[in-house]
Amino acid sequence: MRRAQPGGWAPMLIAAALLALPLLSLFAIFAGRKDATHGVVYAGAFLCSVALISAGLEHLGNHWGPPALVLPFGLPWLSAHFRVDNLSALFLLIVNVPAAAASAFAVGYSHHLPERRRVTPFYPMFLFGMNAVLVADDAFVFLVAWEFMSLASWLMVLADHRSSVNRKAAMVYLTMAVFGTFCLLPAFGLLAGGGGDYTFASMRLHSLGPLAGALVVLLALMGAGSKAGLVPLHAWLPLAHPAAPSHVSALMSGVMTKVALYGLIRILFDLHGHVGWQWGAAMMVVGGISAVMGVLYAVMQDDVKTLLAYSTVENVGIVVIGLGLAIAFKDDGEKSLAALALVAGLYHMINHAVFKSLLFLGAGSVIAATGQRSLAALGGLLKRMPWTGAAFLMGAAAISALPPLNGFVSEWLVLQSLFKGPAVPHWAMKFGVPVVGALFALAAALAGTCFVRCFGIGFLGRPRSVEAAEATDVTFGMRWSMAALAGLCVVLGAIPVRITDALSVVVQPLIGTGFAVSSDLGWPFLSPVSNTRGSYSGTVLVMVGLSLFGIAIALVHRLGTRATRAADSWDCGTPEDNPATQYTGQSFAQPLRRSFGATIFRARESVVMPQPGDDSPARHKATMIDPIWTGLYERLARVVDAVAERVNRMQYLTVRRYLLMMFCTLVFLLLVVAVRQQQ
Amino acid sequence: MTAILWQLVQVVLALATAPLVTGYVRFVKARLNGRRGPSVLQPYRDLYRLVQKEAVVAHSASWIFHAAPYVVFASAWLAACLIPTFTTNIFLAPAADLIALVALLAVGRFWLALAGMDVGTAFGGIGASREMLIASLAEPAMLMVTFSLSLVSGTTQPAQIIAFVLGGNVGIEVSLGLALAAMVMVAIAENGRIPIDNPSTHLELTMVHEAMVLEYSGRHLAMIEAAAMVKLTLYMALIACLFAPWGMAQPGADFPAIAIGMASFMLKLFVLASGLALFETAIAKMRVFRYADFLGGALLLGLLATIFLYVSEAV
């Protein structure tokens, strides 16, 4: 159905939702004492997300022309500009589908929060910030919305401020958020040029010199990359994401990183006229390193939420590999391959938003039920919490890129485009792409290990604590919000061609060409470049696999017996009732820690054995460091401290000296002006 | 139409030959060790015997423990149906390429590792942990092999790779040799053969695969054993189809061509199985913490295979 009248109800809906969200915040502030308020606010946030989803779908489905909206506020010489194009509409979906699930989850979950009055008012503000970034059409609105997003989430990280870990997390997060904006600000300044017109429309027309162009790419990578969690700017993610309440963690990890990547795509593919292939190659290397480092950190974590946050670093790395590849292909004129790589990256963003939110909500359910988030205190939860367990298993399988779920489809597309990478006629690409491919493949395989460990230790086996042994499953609303996301993991994997078709529309204006899906194999088959190049069909695999599954069961039951006896576990003849004899997360990760961690993470193990006669327990201690934290951040902090120490003296000067300094500064500035006028 | 017919033949063939291959390997190993060894048909009898017995399930097991044997078996069987063995003209060929095949095998491994951890014993965990360590290096190595094959032939689809090779487009290349070496190493590791794991060991501390399935019995164990057999045959078929596709029937082939394809496939299985038995007899198992060296070597060989393509192109 094609609408003749552009616009219609969708822009109104977006505007209404964006107005309603701050009002919800105000309501939460003034009525926060009442118990019902929290439910009302989250329900309202849910409705706003649903409205924004339907507007996004309407836009993508009917392609109404991009309506621009100008509001008379903002900087004096610049009104506020808003616009929705295909890219924004897609990201409205990426943001609001998990947001709707998280809001529905939070209606029940917020009862479990000790400090919910410090969370509820900022939650709608956070959603408002993220959505406003997407519809911004000038740098001013973009940055203000970006800051709303950062600060609202920062306040929620600080919600449980009595814990010193959370305070440290909030401090690091605030520093990194300021750093990110500090990079984006000059990037937009350079994009706008000397004219000072900060609308995106004029930035597209303004062409950059080589130096300014390179600077913009670098600043955008640092600004958006720090928010998205690219190595080495990832250090705040595993601190801040777990510190927030779980429904907020879900959005910070699943969605806010996507908004950051939206900023990156907007600048590199839309506003910036031309990005060289070298930048694409550099992004691929950074992405590959992020993917491997992220998942290696993740596989060794004990805290479920920290594990999930590190896994976000990995997935952002995978997306950035796709984006870098798209830039390299685009610069080389391989437009259809560029479209393929960009579609792969966008597809992975959708998928990661869905399953990472699902996993964080699952972790939230576990915390609500047990009060524990350390793997060492969990176990056996699948039997106590069947719904949460099944949903978490679905998320774990999807993020491990197992067919037929969604994670596999996007990783398959990234690999297919990587395999075409050597088509770019530069030697650096020819030799570099296989290396990035190896990094990507390693990360994908380690992700499987990471989530086998996470699910196996957390949900299988026998309970390791009283809380885990007495857990009960979460309430109706929380279950169904997880079930909805789990269902999306299946749907997004089952209809890949529908998704790539929709993404093709998004990619078209950014690359200049769409994504050609060869269709003579029929709708269930995804075959990106050509039929003979490679094809995949999750639907066919599932149908055949299920029939084989059925045949196997029928055959076994027909040939043999169905008798089953329940008994104690055998365990090689030495069963032990104590649940501490099970494998733990630390022991599961030990082979990996030894194989990968010994050099990079300086993982060390020590055993403390008490002397004979001493009845204290023996201890096994495993330690590891974050090399980037100790190698980069701590050094940087020391330098900053040292400089601050020096500068501190300026606070205690006499009036005469201050006057002298002001005079010198004035003379210096006048000289600069004079010299510039001479030229 | 013929594609569906040959697909059905292959579905049956994949299941029927697997125990025979395993039985043959055991038979040859026994002979090389100076033992008489059981008949090559013994694995069929073993499976039938296990199916007849009642299954014992631990109290602490969840539904994962019950479902896993069937999922593991079905995924291995499905993967075996996707690899061209005697003809490339099979119905399911476009449904999965080599990447999807790697991922499909990962599905089975994912479930098996979870099942190992489900009962909550130390042995299950030890097996799952080691299996996943092996997988985290073997899987990327196999993807790098796929990468180099895709660069040579321009496709990741096994049937298309075979068509390309049989079309006489490929000479002897250094990188194909490296890829073959990597592929063989992956196959050894993924099937838990010596030097990575010993399929006939029951010494607790050296087990990988056996430790994971320690709690299984009866029909569940039968399914897992059968899955392991199918997987071994599958990897042999994969090596044969990617690196020695000669004799395989192409689409539109008549009946004699199919017969030749079938005979050559059997011959290839015979050669590979004999080679495996010989290799396993000649070599000793390695320590767990050496796995990373062995499989890291496979990964590097895979990487070198892709890079050598450009080196040979430039020279």
Task: Provide a concise account of the structure shown.
In chain A, 69% of the residues lie in helices and 3% in strands. Chain A has 679 residues and is mainly alpha-helical.
Word description of this protein:
The complex is a heterodimer of chains A (679) and B (315). Chain A is mainly alpha-helical and 679 residues long. Chain A has a domain at 627-678. Chain A is built from 24 helices and five strands. Chain A has helices spanning 9-30, 35-62, 86-109, 122-135, 139-157, 164-192, 200-205, 210-228, 237-243, 246-271, 277-299, 304-331, 335-370, 381-384, 386-399, 406-419, 427-459, 466-469, 476-494, 496-511, 538-559, 585-600, 627-648, 655-678; strands spanning 68-71, 80-83, 564-567, 604-608, 619-623. In chain A, the strands form two sheets. Chain A has a two-stranded antiparallel sheet. A two-stranded antiparallel sheet of chain A has the order 4-5. The longest helix of chain A is centred in the middle third of the chain and has 36 residues, at 335-370. Chain A is globular, with a radius of gyration of 27 Å. By secondary structure, chain B is mainly alpha-helical. Chain B has one domain (2-314). At the A-B interface, helix 16, helix 17, helix 21, strand 3 and helix 22 of A face helix 2, strand 1, helix 3, helix 4 and helix 5 of B. Strand 3 of chain A pairs parallel with strand 1 (55-58) of chain B, so a sheet runs across the interface.
> Radius of gyration of chain A, rounded?
27 Å
Q: Note the total helix count of chain A.
A: 24
Q: How would you classify the quaternary structure? A: heterodimer
Class by alpha and beta content of chain B? mainly alpha
Low-confidence stretches of chain A: 1-6
Characterize the biggest β-sheet of chain A: 2 strands, antiparallel
Describe the strand arrangement of the main beta sheet of chain A, using strand numbers: 1-2
Average residue-wise pLDDT of chain B: 90
Principal-axis shape of chain A equals: globular
Helix fraction of chain B by DSSP (H/I, runs of at least 4): over 70%
Domains of chain B (count): 1
The main β sheet of chain B shows up as: none
Based on secondary structure, the structural category of chain A is: mainly alpha
Strand content of the residues of chain B, in percent? under 5%
What portion of residues of chain A is helical? Answer: 55-70%
Tally of helical runs of chain B: 11
